[in-house]
Amino acid sequence: MNYTHFSIIERSQLEILYRLEWTNREIGEKLGRHHSAIAREKKRGSKDGTYSAEVAQAAYMERRAS
């Protein structure tokens, strides 16, 4: 099974598409990712219910450092 982490560019695209109210499935198709991966990323990168690429990247870096 191949797995690649989300890049900061993908996280920025995610943030924009969420603000445009795209669904997880639509975003997944656009980015070439499974919709469940999009949903997990949204959950991990959200603060106060709003997805932020900056918050998501910081959380990723913190998880990697542990």
UniProtKB/TrEMBL annotation:
GO CC annotations, alphabetized: cytosol
Residues making up the signal peptide according to the UniProt record: none
GO biological process: transposition
Domain Transposase IS30-like HTH: 3-44
Gene3D superfamilies hit by this protein: Homeodomain-like (1.10.10.60)
InterPro entries per the UniProt record, alphabetical: IS30-like_HTH, Transposase-Integrase
Name the record gives this protein: Transposase IS30-like HTH domain-containing protein
Phylogenetic lineage: Bacteria, Bacillati, Bacillota, Bacilli, Bacillales
